[in-house]
Design brief:
Elements: E1 3-9, E2 13-20, E3 23-31, H1 39-55, E4 66-70, E5 73-74, E6 80-84, E7 89-93, H2 95-102, E8 106-110, H3 111-121, E9 131-136, E10 140-146, E11 149-150, H4 181-185, H5 187-199, H6 204-209, H7 219-227, H8 231-255, E12 259-263, H9 265-269, H10 272-284, H11 287-292, E13 294-297, H12 304-318
Parallel strand pairs: 1-4, 4-8, 9-12, 12-13
Antiparallel strand pairs: 1-2, 2-3, 5-6, 6-7, 9-10, 10-11
Helix pairs in contact: 1-2, 3-12, 5-8, 7-8, 8-10
Length: 319
Amino acid sequence: MKFRVGIDIGATKTKILLLKGEEIVEKLQIPTESYWKVEPIVERASRAVEELLARHKIKKAQLPMIGVGLAGQLDPESGYVDNSPNLKWYGLQFGKKFEKRIGVKIRLANDVNAAAWGEFIYGAGKGYKNLVAVFVGSGIGGGIVCNGRLVEGATGTAGEVGHMIFRPNGIKCDCGKRGCYEAYAGGVPMENRMRKAVKAGKSPMVYEMVKGDLSKINTRTIADAARKGDPVAKKIWEEAELGLGMLCANLISMLNPDVLVLGGGVIKGNPSLVKVIRSYVKKMAVELSAKKAKIVKSNLMGDAVALGASALVELEMRR
């Protein structure tokens, strides 16, 4: 296969990669701007791909399929998106609309399933047979490769680790349920909890740290304030550390991977979390599984989803 295109549609930005073999020829990024609807991003992404192909004098007919990684619970076969809290998409048809507009078949996958496959083929999981990926960004997603095969499940929703329950009847998650790991350790939920506390006057320290601009609060702000002793930030950060530690320990106990790959903006911005997770895994996971699993940061980071989606196209064409 000469050329491949991989697309990563995230909550705020969409990344598009053009590859020739395993070489990235060009990468570009556009705002997602979905406005809670499918049509705007279908149009913007299609135009971006068309412009990219035109620059490199590539015809659509040279692309048998386009790989797309999308945040949310979706069916890869039908292209139906059941629930994408970060995009505010619920019960929408994405795949067929994109195929109709772009004029090329797509291989749709959950974004972290695509990232897990990307790490397995190109990144930190290369050379292993069993991999679990946990990406912590706006939310929390997971991906599983077992004996060299990507596990997507009966409805394409395997690996939705962020929506496993951490605390029954706990904080309400954007998915509509309560107590999900994502509600405690996802980047956006943590930031929103901190902003709410600052607005209520419960965290003058953080108010001073961001000079009154609550939009500047991010997970690094929370971690820094926690280390400085702010009680609200400390509670939020400690719950996030506990949640991520327990989640990863449970996944290693259950799936017994060769390697656990940690990625996403929260991990990138707070690399100390890797050490925290290793500590929880050592203490709480099945001992033999914990000894076997290497716990590493993503090699591909921001490119993992788009690279994985492009690699899934190659896998699909072999079938």
